[in-house]
Structure formats: C-alpha cells, structure tokens
Amino acid sequence: MNSLATSVFSIAIPVDGDEDSASGGGVVAIDNKIEQAMDLVKSHLMYAVREEVEVLKEQIKELVERNSLLERENALLKSLSNNDQLSQLPAPQANPGSTSQQQAVGAQPPQPAQPPQQPHVSSA
C-alpha cells in the first residue's frame, strides 16, 4: 500500500515503526500527508474542470454563431416569400430544437419573389 501511495501521490506514508508514534508526531505527519494528497486531488480536479469549462464555452460560442446564421437565413426566406407561402407553413411548435419546420421549408420548391405592388397615384 505504501508503494501505491508513493507512486500515485509522490508522497511516502510511513508505516508502524518508521516514526515515533508515542510522541504524537506520527499522527501529525500522517495528517500532513493526507492534507497534501487532498490538495493534489483538488488541484487535478480544478484543472479538469477548467478544461471542461473552456470546451463548453467554445461549444456555446459555435452554437450562438450557428443560431444567428439560421435566424438571418430565416428572416431572408421570410422576406422573399409571400403571405400565401407563409400561411402554408405549419404552426411553430413548442420545442425550439425541432427540425420539422426546417424540413417543411426545405421541401417546398423555391418560388420567385414577387415585389409588393405599388398603388398608382395620380397627381391632380
């Protein structure tokens, strides 16, 4: 067991007879070794958590960019379609992660945009 603690934590844990346990120094030494091991575990965990946080931040950044791109694309498609085409789309679902709306839009063939008709105003 001592060799395992030495190899994993780089600390040697004395066994009975290595230190004078009658004076209480052995208990203090063991407490110090345990504290060192706990600090080492804590530092490794903190490092792992920081790495995971960085990965998640990068994923969030990519998802925000993709969301923004899709919102712009959606606005463009809406602006190029007429009210009849928009009324044919299914109602928005409660689940924002649903792809059925994207599939419904992609399944319709693109139709040419028709500019709004301007009323003829005659100056009298």
UniProtKB/TrEMBL annotation:
<dbReference type="InterPro" id="IPR053049">
    <property type="entry name" value="TSC22_domain_protein_2"/>
</dbReference>
<feature type="region of interest" description="Disordered">
    <location>
        <begin position="81"/>
        <end position="124"/>
    </location>
</feature>
<dbReference type="Pfam" id="PF01166">
    <property type="entry name" value="TSC22"/>
</dbReference>
<feature type="compositionally biased region" description="Polar residues">
    <location>
        <begin position="81"/>
        <end position="100"/>
    </location>
</feature>
<protein>
    <recommendedName>
        <fullName>TSC22 domain family protein 2</fullName>
    </recommendedName>
</protein>
<comment type="similarity">
    <text>Belongs to the TSC-22/Dip/Bun family.</text>
</comment>
<feature type="compositionally biased region" description="Pro residues">
    <location>
        <begin position="109"/>
        <end position="118"/>
    </location>
</feature>
<dbReference type="GO" id="GO:0006357">
    <property type="term" value="P:regulation of transcription by RNA polymerase II"/>
</dbReference>
<feature type="coiled-coil region">
    <location>
        <begin position="46"/>
        <end position="80"/>
    </location>
</feature>
<dbReference type="InterPro" id="IPR047862">
    <property type="entry name" value="TSC22/BUN_CS"/>
</dbReference>
<keyword id="KW-0175">Coiled coil</keyword>
<dbReference type="InterPro" id="IPR000580">
    <property type="entry name" value="TSC22/Bun"/>
</dbReference>
